[in-house]
TrEMBL record:
InterPro entries, per the entry: BP-dependent_transpt_permease, MetI-like, MetI-like_sf, OppC_N
Topology in the lipid bilayer: Multi-pass membrane protein
Claim: Lipid biosynthesis is one of the keywords in the record: no
Listed transmembrane segments: 36-58, 109-135, 147-166, 178-199, 230-252, 286-310
Family matches, as PANTHER family: ABC TRANSPORTER PERMEASE PROTEIN (PTHR43386:SF26), OLIGOPEPTIDE TRANSPORT SYSTEM PERMEASE PROTEIN APPC (PTHR43386)
Subcellular location: Cell membrane
Coiled coil start-end: none
Similarity comment text for this entry: Belongs to the binding-protein-dependent transport system permease family.
Superkingdom, natural source: Bacteria
Protein name per Swiss-Prot or TrEMBL: ABC transporter permease
Boundaries of every ABC transmembrane type-1 domain copy: 107-307
Lineage per the UniProt record: Bacteria, Pseudomonadati, Pseudomonadota, Alphaproteobacteria, Rhodobacterales
Length: 319
C-alpha cells in the first residue's frame, strides 16, 4: 500500500504594496481617465514648483536694486537692448526688471497668500460649521445668521473693508511688513462662509447616524465626537471647496493688488505686476501686461478645472 503524495503547500500571493493599492484605487482610475485633470495637474505642479524654486530658476533677482539697470527698461521679449545689448526672454518692464523673473517671484506671493487665506477660511468655516450643525439651537442661529449677513455683500468688498480696518490699526512703520499678513486675514475672513454652510449641512446628516449615537452611549464628549467621528466624514466636500476657493483667493489677491490695496510695491504679486503693465498697455509695451496676466489665467483656470474633476471624483452618486 503506497502512501498518497503530499500536496505542496500553497503560497499566498504577496499583498500589493500601498503605492500599488493607491494607483489601482477608484480615485486614481478616475484621474487617469480624465485628460483635462491630468493637464491641469501638470500645469499647476509646474507653476507651483517654479514659484517655490524661483531663486534657483530666475536669471535675475528683480527686487534687488543693485542688479537693476534702468537702461534695460522696455526691452522687448527676445530682442537685444539698443543701449546695453542685453536680451531677456520675456522682456523687461519700465525699471529694467526681467519680466520672467518678476513673474516667478510674484507668483510666490500670490500662491502664499492664496494657500494661507484658504487654510484660514477652512479653519474658521469648518470649526463654526461643526459647532452649528452639532449643537444646534441658538448657537446655530447666531452663526448662520452672521453667515447670511456676510453673504449679502460681495466677498471682494468684505475683503477690502477688513484690509482697510486692519491696515488702519497697524502702525505706519510696520504696514509694508504686515501687508501680506493683513491681506491673508482679509481674504480668509471673507471666504469662511462657504465652508461653514457645507460642513453644517453635512454635520446635520451625520450626527443622526448610528455611529454617532453609539459614541454618545459609551460616554464620548461632544468635542471628541465632533473631532474624531464627524469631522473625517465631512472632509470630502471641504477638499473640493478648498480647491475651488484657492483659485478664487488667488484672483481676489490679484484684484486687491491691482486696485492698489494688496501686496506692497516691495513685494509685488501677479496682481501688482498686472497693474504696472496696464499703465503701459496702450504705449506699445504689451509684454509687461500680457505675460503676468497669462500666468494668472493659466494658474486660476488649471486649479478650477482640477477642482471640478475633484468634485466629480469624490461624489458617490456619479460612481
Amino acid at each position: 500500500m503506497t502512501d498518497a503524495p503530499l500536496s505542496e503547500p500553497q503560497v499566498s500571493a504577496p499583498a500589493p504594496s500601498r503605492m500599488k493599492r493607491i494607483w489601482e484605487s477608484d480615485f486614481m482610475w478616475s484621474f487617469r481617465h480624465a485628460p483635462v485633470a491630468i493637464v491641469s495637474a501638470i500645469v499647476v505642479l509646474v507653476l507651483v514648483l517654479a514659484a517655490v524654486f524661483a531663486p534657483l530658476i530666475a536669471p535675475f533677482d528683480p527686487f534687488n536694486p543693485a542688479t537693476l539697470n534702468l537702461m534695460n527698461g522696455f526691452t522687448p521679449p527676445g530682442e537685444a537692448n539698443a543701449f546695453t545689448g542685453d536680451s531677456f526672454l520675456l522682456g523687461t518692464d519700465d525699471q529694467g526688471r526681467d519680466v520672467f523673473s518678476t513673474i516667478l517671484y510674484g507668483m510666490r506671493i500670490s500662491l502664499f497668500v492664496g494657500f494661507s487665506a484658504v487654510l484660514l477660511a477652512m479653519l474658521i468655516g469648518v470649526t463654526l460649521g461643526l459647532i452649528a450643525g452639532y449643537l444646534g439651537g441658538w448657537t446655530e442661529s447666531i452663526i448662520m445668521r452672521i453667515a447670511d449677513v456676510q453673504l449679502t455683500f460681495p466677498s471682494i468688498l468684505v475683503a477690502m473693508l477688513i484690509f482697510g480696518i486692519a491696515k488702519g490699526i497697524t502702525p505706519a512703520e510696520y504696514r509694508d511688513q504686515m501687508a501680506i499678513w493683513v491681506l491673508i486675514l482679509a481674504i480668509g475672513l471673507s471666504d469662511w462662509v462657504q465652508f461653514a454652510r457645507v460642513v453644517r449641512g453635512t454635520t446635520l446628516v451625520e450626527k443622526n447616524k448610528e455611529y454617532v449615537q453609539a459614541a454618545k452611549l459609551i460616554g464620548r464628549s461632544r468635542f471628541s465626537i465632533m473631532l474624531r467621528h464627524i469631522l473625517p466624514n465631512v472632509l470630502n466636500p471641504v477638499l473640493v471647496i478648498a480647491t475651488i476657493s484657492l483659485a478664487l483667493a488667488i484672483i481676489a489677491e490679484a484684484t486687491l493688488s491691482f486696485l492698489g490695496v494688496g501686496a506692497p510695491p516691495t513685494k509685488p504679486s501677479l496682481g501688482t505686476l498686472i497693474r504696472i503693465g496696464q499703465e503701459f498697455m496702450f504705449s506699445g509695451e504689451w509684454w509687461i501686461l500680457l505675460f503676468p496676466a497669462a500666468t494668472l489665467l493659466a494658474l486660476a483656470l488649471s486649479i478650477n478645472l482640477l477642482g471640478d474633476w475633484l468634485r466629480d471624483a469624490l461624489n458617490p452618486r456619479l460612481r
